[in-house]
Specification:
The chain has about 80 residues and is α+β, with helices and mostly antiparallel strands. The protein has two helices and five strands.
Length: about 80
């Protein structure tokens, strides 16, 4: 499941949950990928649950404003 949001600079971002090994630091990360500037590196935040299903359910419920807040706190994926 993916969503799209627009940031304060009017760039469109795709937002989705990654899988990863359950209960690892890579599990249930929320990724942000810039659709308007693909050379812009992807970013992510870790979902506190560590559970993909829970993270996806939360992603569907989050407001665009909350997702923009998470984007501003996101770590660049290296």
């Amino acid at each position: 499941m993916a969503r799209t949001i627009t940031d304060d600079n009017f760039l469109e971002w795709e937002v989705y949950v990654s899988g990863g090994q359950p209960d690892s630091k890579e599990a249930a990360r929320i990724f942000f990928y810039c659709l308007d500037a693909p050379m812009n590196p992807a970013r992510f935040v870790r979902h506190e649950s560590g559970n993909v299903a829970t993270a996806e359910a939360d992603l569907l419920k989050m407001s665009d404003e909350r997702l923009r807040e998470l984007l501003s706190d996101a770590i660049i994926n290296e």
